[in-house]
Amino acid sequence: MTGFKQIEVVDMDTIDISNLNRQFLFTREDVGKHKSECAAKAIKRRFPALNIKHYVGNIKDGRFDSDFFKSFDLIYNALDNIDARKHVNRVCISLNRPLIDGGSTGYIGTTVSILKDKTPCYECIPKPTPKQFPVCTIRATPDKMIHCIVWAKYLLNALFGDQGEVNFLEDIREELSEVVKNGDYKALATKVFTKVFDEEIHSQLELRNKKQEYGKSELKEEEIKVIEMLRKKELQPLDSTVFNTNPEEIKYEDKEGNRKDTEIWDISLYVQLFYKSIESILTKYGDKVGHIEFDKDDEILLGFIIACSNLRAYNYNIAKETGFKIKEMAGNIIPAISSTNGIVAGMEVIEGLKILSGQTSKLKAVTFSSKNADRVITSSDITQEINKNCQICSNVKPLYKLTVDEETFKLQDLIEKVLKKDLSISSPTLECGGKIFFETGDDLDEDEIEEYEHKLPKLLKGDLNVGDKYNKIRVDDFLQDFTCDIELHYSKVVNKDENPQGYIFEIVVEGSQKQNPSKEEAKIVPEQDKSEPTYTCVDQNSDDVIIADPADICQKTAVKRKSDELEEIDHQAKRSKITI
Amino acid sequence: MDITRERLIQERKNWRKEHPHGFIAKPCKDPKTGSSDLYEWDCLIPGKKGSDWEGGNFRLIIQFPEEYPNKPPKCVFKPVLFHPNIYPSGTVCLSILNEDEDWKPSISIAQILLGIQELLANPNPSSPAQADPYLMLTTKKKDYVQKVREQVRTIGKKF
Ligand SMILES: [Zn+2]
After folding, report:
1. Measured between CB atoms, which of A429, A443, A455 is closest to B34?
2. Which residues of chain B have a CB within 8 Å of the CB of A67?
3. A7 has which bridge partners?
4. CA count, 13 A, side-chain hemisphere, B15
5. Per residue in B64-121, pLDDT tens?
6. Mean pLDDT of chain A
7. Of A434, A441, A443, the CB nearest to B39
8. Which of A60, A119, A315, A429 has the maximum number of C-beta atoms within 10 A of its C-beta?
């Protein structure tokens, strides 16, 4: 209706029943089908003249290469995570394609237009790190359910996840790793249960009594702090032996065997779920144990989190929550509201029309709240806010300095932690001294892929001799066209307390050709704590927020508006693309 | 040296994104370290369709000098092919591979390989590099064709 004639939609998700309340393109019959397909069909029914094509897949897949992106005049993001946003941003910047990024969290919606050299890119302003809770609150003095959930996720990692992750439950990992390896789930469950839900609470009770006996002077400052926090709390240790941990009938499931996630249960059922979850993890995920990562859509892992967080809540006399609520909190899910998404879609169309009609100096970043009480809309002129030293959209090729422990640092650490996590690189090629030592991509031969995979668990220095002669690693992203250099330094003593990741990664910003060449150093870890800029995407506080879905965005085709501006481009055949 | 590396990384990337059908070109793998050497590429050229070379695949090594792309790479057939424009060492004699002739830094690896495929099918008698095939081509064309076909069957089938 606004003149878009060719639209292609990319999405990897299937339709969940919970989507139906806000994604009007889908009906009950569509549940379980692919979103992109159903959205395309629904639109096609209403606008038969529209040429709409859909793809089921991840936008980071190799088939969505630069040729694919190049074929569009306009690209819309309707993504739900920072990583994919960075990826699309980089591809669009490298190909000089206009990108419109939209998002919503609850009542707040945002639209940002991104066009190389005309506006800042998505990465011009560093995104603030997700909200973190003080370690002490999580470890010793929780007083809200969310604290228990965060703790439960750490416990999951300490028992079954990667060691590289930052985790202050390392002592539990060390103490129990042998029992985990043995695979005797009954023994493991009992051991974990006794340690964390019983002994630990008992020792806190003791600590509290200790204070009464000795007075303040003989305690460490930290202990005093914990005691102060604990003073008002009612601590309730849990003794697993009083529960039937292996019941004949599982009472927390309905007749069809589905967990009753909409109800709050008796504490004994959480104990049973805890035992059952550990059994399931060890028996069903055998090989993956040691590398398990929490995924809110994994029923077994979610069960573990539901059980642990409620048991811990019981310990600290915090109100229990339903499994459904815990899933929402654990997955950082903020309810998506259809009216917010509708407004975002409308604003995105307007920004898109500005781009297509060449009015790039009028591009705006718009943020609004659609909540009745505080309706605000802020629109800011972003064209002046380009970061000249941005590693993505300026011509500065960044140089980083990486210091690692030569005795423990593996190729997979470099790839998974430094490149994928810290730099958001999706498909790296690594070169050092004229030799390519790692590549990835669908185009490679099977034996090549296998050979590279075989290298992943090897030590960067001891096994692969990277950095022996030359210490500069060239990193090139096959899909993003992002290139940088990493200067590699080995050190025997990377202080683990200060650098829990086990490495130090710093940026040495190279002055661009026009500027003075003096090197400016800025630490990347810990990340800069910048106050919220006027142009941001709303999901920055979480990696996993529900953002406008394809249906929401596709509705832009149904936006009824006709202005001179629209008619002007109406007759031009335009292609646009939506990534979700 | 940085320019050379950067260019070779780019060549590898371009090739991975798109290359002529039936051709192979990739940096040589060191079996010990599993790393590949950007300065030496292992290639396979299919004989041109419709020519006497059709049906065979011929292995070629490309060696890049430190001055690349200002200077052209050296292309060597392994094993050596019976062809008037290939030196007894296996090195290809082609104007676009000669610094003093038609080499341009903008020539891509794909262009080089296509150029060599063309040269196999259409030898250039005005700049001979190997005596026997040159003489045979100019005097006993039939025998030459037979020899080429034989080569397609023997060398060209190994890969
Ligand atoms: Zn930027």
Report:
1. A455
2. 17
3. A52, A576
4. 25
5. 999 999 999 999 999 999 999 999 999 999 999 999 999 999 999 999 999 999 999 9
6. 79
7. A434
8. A119
The encoded tokens of residue B11 equal: 């060549």
Domain A6-127+336-389+544-578, CATH number (from 3.40.50.720, 1.10.3720.10, 3.60.140.10, 3.20.20.370):
3.40.50.720
Instruction: Residue A427: name the closest of A447, A451, A410, A444 by CA.
Output: A444
Q: How far is the CA of A452 from the centre of ligand 1 (A)?
A: 32
Placement of tokens 């001979």 in the chain? B128
Whether a cis peptide bond, with omega within 30° of 0, leads into A526 is: yes
Between A435, A465, A476, which is nearest B37 by CB?
A: A435
Tell me: the pLDDT tens digits for A235-260?
888 988 888 877 778 889 988 889 99
Interchain pair B38, A436: CB under 8 A: yes
Topology given in CATH for the domain delimited by A143-317: Arc Repressor Mutant, subunit A (1.10.10)
> Distance from CA of residue A420 to its chain's centroid?
12
Q: What is the dihedral of CA A15, A20, A24, A29, to 10 degrees?
A: 60
pTM for this prediction: 0.63
**Chain A contact for B17 (CB, 8 A cutoff):** yes
Token digits of residue B43:
């290639």
Sorted by where each begins, the domain ranges of chain A are 6-127+336-389+544-578, 143-317, 398-509
Active site residue B75: no
Residue pointed to by tokens 């006497």: B52
Architecture category of domain A398-509 in CATH? Roll (3.10)
> What domains can be seen in chain B, in order of their start residue?
3-154 (3.10.110.10)
Interface test with chain B among A427, A429, A431, A475, by most B beta carbons within 10 Å? A431
* SS3 label, residue A410: strand
pLDDT score, position A301: 95
Would you call A487 an interface residue with chain B, using a CB distance cutoff of 8 Å?
A: no
In the predicted structure, residue A535 carries a pLDDT above the cut 50: no
Instruction: Enter the DSSP assignment of A259.
Output: B
